[in-house]
TrEMBL record:
This is Acetyltransferase. The keyword Hydrolase does not apply. It comes from Methanosarcina spelaei. Transmembrane segments: none annotated. InterPro entries: Acyl_CoA_acyltransferase, GNAT_dom, N-acetyltransferase. Residues 4-164 form the N-acetyltransferase domain.
Amino acid sequence: MPRVKIRPQELFDAKCFFDIITHTNLEFIEFPIKTLEEERYFLRLNETKRKANFEYNFSILYYGRLVGACGIKIDQHRPWIGENGYFIDRDYQGMGIATEAVRQLEKIGFEQLDLQRIIILMDTRNLASERVAQKCGYKKEGIMNKVHRIGEDYYDCFLYAKTR
């Protein structure tokens, strides 16, 4: 069994995801999901999002246990560009899981989705996410001002990218 594996999200993942997002301090991500039913609704939309070439969401498994999520959102004006995003359960952070998940996600983006460019945006305060991008060979292209919103506040993000 591989140490880290990603697979398409399933409806039965809802309880695990809800547990992760309610007990992990994901200070650099705003989750609109407040109930288990809202999480189930989100997961039900995945097939429609894939068919529309809008978003591809995956569960991150660590030795078979669901510990996070990742996904590629396709730029609807430039469908050759995708944006990677990810989060990991607090009990599994700092173990290289996000780095391996991003590598697998990148392979899907370039090889299966035929993307030419993949970007990762992260809050400039999120040093762990910046390290993931650097370890995966993404290059910092700059800072995007006030592009990230949490609640009523706007934050700057680093823009990292990799091309085929």
